[in-house]
Design goal:
Layout (H helix, E strand, L loop, with lengths): L2 H14 L13 H22 L4 H15 L7 H23 L3 H19 L5
């Protein structure tokens, strides 16, 4: 990926994410919420793997979120897989920007947004 493409993806994630429905994992439809949260948690697990840090608690949260999603009828539909993939990509862009950006302000904003969105998902879990 070129630097320009990476910058464009990051800017898109940072500037348009709050206004897009996919940005917030919370939705009136529980299946949409759980699908988005599963995608965000998967991105977090992968980020832990990338950094060789303990992914155990996040893997447990991901497993719980997948169980919640699977408990809803019709939640295995392509639409929900698409939501998971989109949320995963958006979260991964935020995490990558937060960790690897040379711009401290942009990294801080991305980190805050990533933590906020993930916190909304974790708040749905019983643990």
């Amino acid at each position: 990926m070129s630097a320009r493409t990476g910058l464009m993806m990051t800017l898109l994630a940072l500037t348009s994410a709050p206004a897009l429905p996919a940005a917030s994992p919370l939705s009136a439809d529980p299946a949409q919420t759980f699908a988005r949260c599963a995608g965000r948690l998967m991105a977090e697990v992968e980020h832990h793997w990338l950094l060789s840090t303990n992914a155990g608690p996040t893997e447990a949260a991901l497993s719980d979120m997948r169980d919640l999603l699977a408990s809803l009828p019709g939640s295995e539909a392509r639409y929900f897989l698409s939501l998971r993939s989109e949320a995963r990509a958006a979260q991964r862009a935020l995490l990558d920007t937060a960790r690897f950006s040379g711009n401290a302000e942009k990294a801080a904003r991305a980190g805050l947004m990533a933590e906020t969105l993930l916190g909304q998902c974790r708040a749905l879990l019983p643990r």
